[in-house]
Amino acid sequence: MIFKRGGCVYIMTNKYNKVLYVGVTSELPGRVWDHKNKTHPYSFTAKYNCDKLVYYIFYPNIEEAISAEKVL
Predict the structure, then answer these.
(1) Spatial separation of the C-alpha atoms in residues 12 and 24, rounded to whole Å
(2) pLDDT tens, 30-72?
(3) Which one of 35, 41, 51, 67 is separated from 8 by 20 to 30 angstroms, measured CA to CA?
(4) DSSP state for residue 36 in the 8-state scheme
(5) What three-state secondary structure class fits 10?
(6) How far, in Å, are 17, 27, 60, 63, 70 from residue 4 at the CA level?
């Protein structure tokens, strides 16, 4: 039996709600922490200070989440 892990599509923005970032992850709390703490200092979200989570939706498997992210 193969166990499939779920995933989330999420949207982050900056303090002024001027920039949007759409991402996908299987571990939302950790990923949001990464954005807030600029774990990857040269990333898009670090450059534009996207550290506010404004939306997320959970999907039962990561493949569905990836497909939904590509639509957005």
Answers:
(1) 11
(2) 999 999 999 999 999 999 999 999 999 999 999 999 999 999 9
(3) 41
(4) H
(5) strand
(6) 34, 14, 8, 9, 20
Q: Tell me which residue range forms the domain holding 32.
A: 7-71
Q: Is 70 left (phi over 0), alpha (psi -120 to 50) or beta?
A: alpha
Burial class (CB in 10 A: 0-12, 13-18, 19+), 24: buried
Total domain count for the chain?
A: 1
56: β partners: 10
Q: Is residue 1 part of a domain?
A: no
pLDDT given at position 1: 46
Token pair 């989440």 is found at 65
| Residue pair 54/13 in contact by the 8 Å Cβ criterion | yes
Span 11-17, mean pLDDT?
A: 97
